[in-house]
Amino acid sequence: MAVNIETETGGTIWKCLVENGQSVAEGDVLFIMEVMKMEVPYEAPVAGTVSDLAIAEGDAVPEDHLALVLT
To answer: 52 and 68 in contact (C-beta within 8 Å)?
Structure first.
């Protein structure tokens, strides 16, 4: 079952810590967004493999933007 990881608010991708095909464990930090000068980490809600990575460091993204999919 695929799990979509979407941004909760608009901001800038400060650090992307995963790449397509990478396996992650539940709780691993996937990427960090900068929102109003605060760093907001996004963690994997489930274990899986990163697919459809749609972000890169420096990207400005809106709220509810699909960042990646875990399969």
So the answer is: yes
